[in-house]
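task queued by scheduler; priority normal; single chain, no ligands, no partner chains; default sampling; output format set to structure tokens
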Amino acid sequence: MGGHPWFYFVAYQPNIALAMQSLRNREFKAGRYNPAVKFPQFPVTANSPSPGARHPSIEKAMSAADADGTRSVLDIEQVSRQPGHGVVAPVSDKRLLEFFGTAKPSRVMIEADMDFFEDVERGQGIYIIIYKNERPSEIFFAGYSYD
């Protein structure tokens, strides 16, 4: 069937791993993952459905999702400098310049052009620091489900 894209905007904090784990916990508790919700909708907003977790843990949810994956950030278990399965890695400054003409893209720039998804493999993710007035304001996490 093919991987399904997922993406989130979260408030900036310098500890990317902590931000990602907080996001995973939030989305798990909200129940916005497969199989609790077959195809979660993106972008996630304050009005997004939140049926609640249907599994006792993220690990059990991932196991229940099987080969499809959770179609969410739950499939990501770590932050790394290098891409890999179950990993989010930063988009390089070189690629940011190619995509946005700057290494400090704004949220508007990212929402207007998500061509960077072409660099993302199934079961992997990326993150981009978003800037507002030349200061980090958000972290954008995105990726593809396994299948």
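post-processing summary
- The CA atoms of residues 80 and 89 lie 5 Å apart.
- The mean pLDDT is 93.
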